[in-house]
Amino acid sequence: MSSASSVRPVSEQPAAAPTGIACDIFCAVIDNFGDIGVCWRLARQLASEHGWQVRVFVDDLHAFQKLCPSLALDRARQAVGGIVVEHWHEPAHAGDTLEVADVVIEAFGCELPPIYVAAMARRERAPVWFNLEYLSGEDWVADFHLRPSPHPRYPLTKTFFFPGLGPGTGGVLKERSLDAARAAFEASQPEREAWWLKTTGRAPPPLTATVVSLFAYENPAIDSLLEQWRDSAEPVVLLVPEGRISGAVARFFGLPAFAAGSHAERGSLSVHALAFIEQPGYDTLLWASDVNFVRGEDSFVRAQWAAKPFVWHIYPQADDAHLPKLDAALAHYARTLPADARDALARFWHAWNGTGRPDWAEFQRHRPALKQRAAEWAVELAQVGDLAGNLALFAKSQLK
Ligand code: TRH
């Protein structure tokens, strides 16, 4: 039987041998945690699995520190787990010593510092330059993935790298050790008991309870859902990392706030507020839950690898540009579900994203089918290949 210390967090896997490839990742944080969440996960993977020397330029150390508590807020440059982190404090800043890496990743269309681009052009061998785009499951993504875009003035080419859910795209991030870490956690009763005790101060709930993790933006549908959970026939244990939805949970219980460590009960519903977890630990929350509510981009991906039924609160965009993305993701994820389960899932996702009322009883009725599909989908998605591996392979083909 595995002991409580036998499961290695995904971040602590043995490092790959150094390859001498240097990589700079530039990340401008628009809001929340997804921009740096994706960049930091990619950085860690390129360093640990591909042996690259990685440097991350990021303009918001506060957002970053939530995911990585060992980060110092007052340092212009620091090393975290073998990765150099530069506080990118102004558009012109490109590190105290201007060195240009072999591979340059401009995340989500953030503009590289002009002096850095000029230095890229002066480099004896031009670096491999990627624009890493946001994830979308839409069909057009495969057509645009790896399209080159020559620079208008310099002898440089930028390659558009599109994450995606289908063949021909860049895929999504997945660490090599992820499935084994999940399997070890799921197989270890002591591991799970230790997790529940550490995270909620209590023993794991009975098997009759449905455990739900809730990571979402402010969402008007939450009130109805909390009522349905309160009134449900079976117990519901809700785990809420402190954040944008916490205020609504507090209001439901008539509390001034629902800060980490709080616990509240009403009817069949029992809720724990959790402290925001260090990024590698977030997966364990998903593995410990039966149903995961996730949002944005990175948690959406992690929920797919957790292979549990999940509900996506997509990042809202102007003119409802996010709605086709929501439906494209559903088309992949729900593809082989029986029609009634597929419709129930689509209705629930749409309700959670502003159209209609979420029907928990209906979702629960289809949960066995959703659970089976979630496991199959994780296998299907893995066939697209992992984003870091796909990116490293392409970069190496260009560096030859
Ligand atoms: O935080 P998000 O909503 O982030 C983003 C940004 O808003 C971005 O601008 C937008 O373009 C993008 O979404 C689509 O959601 P996301 O992407 O899931 O990022 C959250 C990160 O926080 C993810 O890496 C998981 C991590 N996390 C923890 O590390 N600990 C926690 O306790 C929780 C709840 C999340």
Automatic annotation (TrEMBL):
<comment type="function">
    <text>Protein-arginine rhamnosyltransferase that catalyzes the transfer of a single rhamnose to elongation factor P (EF-P) on 'Lys-32', a modification required for EF-P-dependent rescue of polyproline stalled ribosomes.</text>
</comment>
<dbReference type="InterPro" id="IPR016633">
    <property type="entry name" value="EarP"/>
</dbReference>
<dbReference type="GO" id="GO:0106361">
    <property type="term" value="F:protein-arginine rhamnosyltransferase activity"/>
</dbReference>
<protein>
    <recommendedName>
        <fullName>Protein-arginine rhamnosyltransferase</fullName>
    </recommendedName>
</protein>
<keyword id="KW-0808">Transferase</keyword>
<dbReference type="Pfam" id="PF10093">
    <property type="entry name" value="EarP"/>
</dbReference>
<comment type="similarity">
    <text>Belongs to the glycosyltransferase 104 family.</text>
</comment>
<keyword id="KW-0328">Glycosyltransferase</keyword>
